[in-house]
Write a structure and sequence with these properties.
This protein is about 40% helix and about 25% strand. The chain has about 100 residues and is an alpha+beta fold.
């Protein structure tokens, strides 16, 4: 099942006991702050949840599956996310192990 932005905001408001308007405002604030910090070169680390950083992908030649030829993919930035073991266990409903 795919959850769209509106459904996500509704769930967030319901879970937090706040209005949908404030949920939307704070969701966008979190996303904008997250992106600004990455662009400034910071590594974002939420202990026991995740680590996020901006990395550079080198340019390379790749296969263009649409026409069978070769294309050059320009160097570009990408967000690298590393998820914690605790979070992975929580998603998989496994007992949390002491670290």
């Amino acid at each position: 099942m795919i959850i769209n932005e509106k459904e996500f905001i509704n769930r967030m408001a319901e879970k937090g006991g706040v209005t949908k308007c404030s949920s939307k405002k704070y969701l966008y604030l979190v996303i904008e702050t997250f992106l600004d910090l990455l662009k400034e070169g910071h590594v974002i680390r939420f202990y026991r949840l995740f680590k996020a950083e901006l990395t550079m992908v080198v340019g390379k030649t790749s296969t263009d599956f649409a026409n069978g030829g070769r294309i050059y993919v320009e160097p570009h930035k990408k967000i690298k996310m590393t998820w914690s073991k605790k979070l992975r266990n929580r998603i998989n409903d496994e007992d949390e192990e002491e670290e």
